[in-house]
Amino acid sequence: MPSREHVEEFVRMVEAKQYLEAMEAFYAPDATAQENNEPPRIGLPALLDNERKTLASVGAADAQCMRPIVIDGDRVVIHWIFTFRLPSGAMIKLEEIALQTWRDDQLASERFFYDSRQMRP
C-alpha cells in the first residue's frame, strides 16, 4: 500500500513534466497501462516507449492533478487534466481519471478513462 506522501511525490513529478522519470521511479518492471477499453500495454519498457512516442507526437504537454487524490489501500484514483500543444499550434485539453493499483511502493497497473473525442484539436 503506497503512502500518501509517496503518491504525492509521483504526482509532483508528473506535474513538473518529468513524465519518463516518474515512470522509471514509480512503475513496477511488469506494470501495465490501459487506455479505456484498449488492450493493455505490458512491462515498463513498453510503457516508456509509448510515453516517448506520445510526447514526440504532441509537442508539449502540461499535467494538472485535480485534488483530492483518492487512496484506498492499494487503489489510487487521480483526476488529471492534460493540456497538449501540438506542433501545428493547436491545443488539446484532455480530462481523464486514472485508476491505479499499487504493489507496495510501485505502481503495478493503471487504467485511464476518458472521452476520446477530447483528442480532437
Tags for this model:
alpha+beta, 3 helices, Nuclear Transport Factor 2, Chain: A, 43% strand, 121 residues, single chain, 29% helix
Report what the structure shows.
Helix 2 packs antiparallel against helix 3 (44-58). It contains 3 helices and 7 strands, in the order H-H-E-E-H-E-E-E-E-E. The chain has helices spanning 4-15, 19-26, 44-58, and strands at 27-35, 41-42, 60-65, 70-72, 75-85, 91-103, 106-113. The model has no long low-confidence stretch (mean pLDDT 95). The relative contact order is 0.21. By secondary structure, the chain is α+β, with helices and mostly antiparallel strands. It has a single domain (4-119), classed as Nuclear Transport Factor 2, Chain: A. The radius of gyration is 14 Å and the shape is globular.
Tell me what portion of residues adopts beta-strand conformation: 35-45%
The string of secondary-structure elements, in order, is HHEEHEEEEE
Oligomer: single chain
Q: Per CATH, what is the topology?
A: Nuclear Transport Factor 2, Chain: A
User: Rough shape?
Assistant: globular
What is the second-level CATH architecture? Roll
Instruction: Please outline the major beta sheet.
Output: 7 strands, mixed
Number of DSSP E strands:
7
Poorly predicted segments: none
C-alpha-based Rg, rounded: 14 Å
What is the total domain count? Answer: 1
Q: Give the averaged pLDDT, no decimals.
A: 95
> What class do helices, strands and sheet pairing give?
alpha+beta
